[in-house]
Structures are given as C-alpha cells and as structure tokens.
Amino acid sequence: MSKQYDRDYFERWYRDPALKREAIGGGARLARKVALAVATAEYWLERPLRSVLDVGCGEGAWQPALKKLRPRASYLGFDSSEYAIERFGRRRGLHRAAFGDFAMLRPCAPADLLVCSDVMHYLDTRELDAGLPGLAELCAGIAFLETFTREDAVEGDTAGFRRRPARFYRDRFEAAGFVALGSHLWLSPALAGQAAALETAG
Questions:
Q1: Cα four-point dihedral sign 2, 4, 8, 9
Q2: Beta bridge partners of 144
Q3: Stretch (H or E) spanning 185
Q4: Would residue 173 be called left, alpha or beta, if left means φ above 0 and alpha means ψ between -120 and 50 degrees?
Q5: Which is nearest to 166 in space by CA: 141, 114, 201?
Q6: End-to-end CA distance of the chain
Q7: Which whole-number Å values give the CA distances from 168 to 16, 25, 38, 155, in the listed order?
Q8: How many whole angstroms separate alpha carbon 53 and alpha carbon 93?
Q9: Phi/psi of residue 111, nearest 5 degrees
Q10: From CA 108, how far away is CA 55, in angstroms rounded?
Q11: Could you give the CA distance from residue 119 to residue 97 in angstroms, rounded to a whole number?
C-alpha cells in the first residue's frame, strides 16, 4: 500500500504531543529554520527576500512563519497531498503537483528562496532525477534542501525512507549546479560563481 499524506499523517507527525522528540513539527524549530534560510538568501542577494517556492510543502507550514518575517514576500507551495491542498491551498497559496512534475513544470519566475524540506529521501531515484534539474532552474538565490541519509541517526517517520549515502545527494545537487553552504543550504547555479573560497562547504 502506498504512503498516504492525509489528515491522520499530518496529525501524527506534526502535531501529536505524545511523540515529543520524534515529532517533525514544532513552532520554535520551524521558526529557526525559516530565519536561517531567509537570512542566508538575503546575505547572498544583498536585498530583502521577495519570493519563495516550496516544493513538497505539505500543509505549507513555512508560509505563516515566512509571513511573520517578510510580510511582503510572495510564497508559492506545491505538494502531492490532496488533503493538504484541499485544506490549506487557498489560505496559504498551495497547489497540487508531485516532485517529478518539475521535470516540466515552471510555475513562476526563479525564486529568491527555494525550499524542499524533508522530501527527497522519500522519493524513488527516477522521480528525484526527473525533478531536480527543474528545481535548480527555479532557484535564483538560495535553496534549503533538507535531506537525510543513511549516515544520519534518523528518528520519526521512517516509512519509505531511502537509506542512501550522503554522496548520492551531493553528487546530484552538484551536477544540477548547486554549491554547498552547509546546514542544508545550497547556493543556486545563478549565484555559484560569486562565492569566495571559504564561503562554501566544498
């Protein structure tokens, strides 16, 4: 049976207080991630953040956190969950699409910040390879590509988790033109040539 990203899934993994450490959710944790990504994008762009594209956005949890920091920035989210889009689509600017659809889908101009958080380690290789070049094209500034590997002590939702080595992702991100900055942050191909030697994690 394929994994269902329905209401029960999000209630369990994002809001169940009984899970404590295993839970993915948590307002303070999310706020720190968002603040890190926004500050990094603005450092490299040398201006306030204007646009965010979130691929595999789930319920669009980044949207309200971003609006608190940058009320004028646009946010556009995509996810394959019918439940998430039906419940939060209109309110948070979410639309239905799978990761692999970004092989062809270009829904907006390249964004200042591209987010793909806790997604790629659940994808099969074919879908990952199909969609990743599209994400690179849609990123004009910084990408937050939060991805976990078999070298990590993964807790929480391990159903369908692909235990790939970190090198698997590094090779693909670099082949797409991304440059590692650390803390799941990657410089877009558009800005890759502007990095000083010690600004990158390479």
A1: positive
A2: 115, 185
A3: strand 185-187
A4: alpha
A5: 201
A6: 40
A7: 32, 27, 27, 20
A8: 10
A9: -90, 155
A10: 12
A11: 13
For residue 81, give the amino acid letter. Answer: S
Quick one: which of 134, 140, 163, 157 has its CA closest to 42? 140
Per-residue pLDDT band for 22 (boundaries 50, 70, 90) equals very low
- Give the chain's length: 202
Q: What is the pLDDT of residue 13?
A: 55
pLDDT for 105-122, tens place per residue? 999 999 999 999 999 999
- Cβ neighbours for 106, distance < 8 A, ≥ 6 positions apart: 134, 137, 138
Query: Structure tokens of 20?
Result: 């404590």
HSE-CB of 114 using CA atoms within 13 angstroms: 28
